Amino acid sequence: MGFLQAYKMAVKSIRSNKVRSFLTMLGVIIGVGSVIAAVGFAQGSTKSITDTIQGMGTNLIQISITGRNSNRNVTYEDLAAFAAENSEEITAVAPQVNAAMTVKHGTKNTETSINGTSPEYETIRNVHVQAGRFLLQLDVDYMQKVAVLGTAVVNELFEDADPIGQSVKINGQVFKVVGILEEKENGQTDSQDDQVIIPVTVAQRLGRATVIRNFAVQAATPEAVDSVMSKLNSFLEKIYKDTSTFRVFNQAQMLSTLNNVTGTMTVVLAGIAAISLIVGGIGIMNIMLVSVTERTREIGIRKAIGAKKRNIMVQFLIEAVIVTGIGGLLGVAVGVSVIRFVIGIMDIVPEVYSIPWILLSFGISLIIGVLFGLFPAYKAASMNPIEALRAE
Amino acid sequence: MQQVLMKVENVSKSYQMGEVSVNALQNADFELYEGEFVVILGPSGSGKSTLLNIMGGMDLPTEGRILVKDEEITGYNDRKLTAYRREKVGFVFQFYNLMANLTARENVELATEICKGALNIDDVMAEVGLGDRKDYFPSQMSGGEQQRVAIARAVAKNPLLLLCDEPTGALDFQTGILILELLHKINKTFNKTVVIITHNMAIGDMGDRVIKMRSGKIVEIKVNQNPIPPERIEW
Questions:
Q1: Within 13 Å of residue A228, how many CA atoms lie on the same side as its CB?
Q2: What does the pLDDT read at residue B195?
Q3: Looking at the domain that runs over B4-232, which CATH code has it been given?
């Protein structure tokens, strides 16, 4: 029997049992759909966090002073001198003093993150102004009360008015707005757009912080990052005599830690979804066995007129593969729709469509069709024609 | 002298039913000639279906052997028996045994697609009088028409031997006669050996030879000097 004939018979049998065929497919549809949606969600979360980290600037190394030292602390000047010594590897150093404070304009106010730093911050953290100017060294040296606003803060306080040249109050002190940052995350609150940048010296006074605990260092090239980190470590160790009082870390470490977490998350989610795919496969085997029993007589006729074992196996296998194949395609549609309309509209994570995972889950559905179709098909092909013909 | 198509040599078949052994067929011994029309007559339980199944390669005897054109089919394995059924034998059953979800033509195709040297489907369907019913499904046809499809399916493979198990058993008298006429025509025009098994004594009159069976044994083989044409049979 030709392949085409087997295909035709399989299609006819599927079409003559539409509801049953659909219910059989449902297992595969849900399985494939949930694999794709789960992986889409996991990869969307990964992308969202990765984007945030990469948005922080390239070749970034963070120094964080966690402990206290009775003798002396590292200062911005120390690090600037260190950077100058290693200028071929270090392009810039910026201090960071962070605090959450209330910013006011007229009758409106908003709680935001105040970030005291220096002009170098612009290149290190890859933040640029879309209007006005960034901080100048003069602002830092002369403790000018100037502020660069993120778009989230602008949206909260100014609505349609142009904020540049206007004044805002931070913790009761009057600051002049000199610039607006470029938007990074749609101006949402609690994002990178929700911050106010002021000179580090002003921030220290405002927050009564005598010691600067955070610094951002930019390495000249990605390859220099490791060497700069080890030099920084030994430099800081000399000052603090204790490695537990400070921490030097970079984006790559953060990313790799994160990738471990999200990689595990992807596998766990996909694993749970894959179980439903297997359950779907068992459903197919179950229905195919029923179908074999139901068509015992038909199998008997075909064996009587001389159909080979292989002919009969092929027919039932094709039927199983068609059911899982259509189910797989519908599952892809369901999975993509879930990403597009559920994850996309809830807007928690970006929409990510992983083509390899889509192909993989569709491929697995076909394999499941073959594997779980094999036993019923074999059972059908091994029937004795006389007994099969006697069946009612 | 007629050519021998099939030699049935001392064939017996017994089934084990629990602890009892049932002898369905005992020492059947006869020959089939090419182009012959043979009627195997016997009441139900006389072993005629068992004999037919063994002759058609659907079952193996417990004793004895069958030679088709000097080749012993009773020694065949499963695969070779399937090939024998596919190439050499056409079956016609009492209850037509058509695929309900295939059209008349597709039912015939089902058989011709798998065998070599098949006849043209459209010619065969015209021959059995279904030239204009090819795209009907079994449920849209009368019993007689369905049996014609089954005959077309068996004949289209161009087999050596047509084995018919109670072909008129499910049909009314008139339709049954038409089917017998068709089988008779196929026997004469295609020169095919046709074997009919039936319990209907009247059909015996149209056979070139009649093999009578009772309780698993052949009790008489009668040669009809003047077989009656099927249109003159009555029951």
A1: 31
A2: 92
A3: 3.40.50.300
